[in-house]
């Protein structure tokens, strides 16, 4: 057993925070880690990093932002016992090899995850991500190229089908590849994020895994909105863990405290901290409007939340947003 392979050495169940574009940057991951009790979260992922971009001298600097781990985050990862995985995407095996080599030689990640599940139409139209579900030969080449470029454990995050449910064929194929882990979202690409995630198909994948590759962990993903829900699904469907994506928007404190214990002051203080972390990590190199998607996460479920949120949505800088929060907090304290 490889002691550096967290897929084999970590506890069960494995609790993971999903990779999300313009969400799981180093600032947000650091915020989540601050609010995590050791043992409640096992693995976090970066945003999606393009292999094309990482292989292009002029595009690398921009794409490499998705792989940044701040010094404070690195310390928290160690303190909380959390692993961090770089997720990459593309459609060219040679670029997967080169990009993985670059990551392996320049960063300190605990694993590489191949995105074979992103449903965004223009990405799929390029033959990347979910498109690989219907291109076994290319998917195989990409996995092999990534595997050859690193000693880190390699995993795949994918879906149960492209235009239709195709779990049996696709999962049988994946479990015959040299992978250390598999994360399965219970929707097809065509659904995007609509409808309910089909955990019965995830259970079918577990049964396939048990026959084909019993040593490869399988993580379920889709519609996990609380720690309680996560444990219920793991028990019912037999996965080795669960990945939480949009659920973190309902409760960024889910790895720390029950939502009922989060009062208005703590919500606003957490948003204030997020603004500070974002500014510290990126300065002006990333646009301020990206932060606006987080306002509803923190400013909700209390009296007057909609008015404060409206005021925040009209701000145009971190300084302006910070001022709104400070004014609101002063009224609460007084």
TrEMBL record:
Active site per database record: 118 (proton donor)
Domain (DUS-like FMN-binding): residue spans on this chain: 16-328
CDD domains: DUS_like_FMN
SUPFAM superfamilies: FMN-linked oxidoreductases
InterPro entries: Aldolase_TIM, DUS-like_FMN-bd, DUS_fam, tRNA-dHydroUridine_Synthase_C
Record has tRNA-binding as a keyword: yes
Cofactor(s) of this protein: FMN
Keyword Ligase (UniProt): no
Annotated GO MF terms: flavin adenine dinucleotide binding; tRNA binding; tRNA dihydrouridine synthase activity
Top-level class of the enzyme under EC nomenclature: oxidoreductase
E.C. code: 1.3.1.-
Known role: Catalyzes the synthesis of 5,6-dihydrouridine (D), a modified base found in the D-loop of most tRNAs, via the reduction of the C5-C6 double bond in target uridines.
PANTHER family, A to Z: TRNA-DIHYDROURIDINE(47) SYNTHASE [NAD(P)(+)]-LIKE (PTHR45846)
Protein name, as recorded: tRNA-dihydrouridine synthase
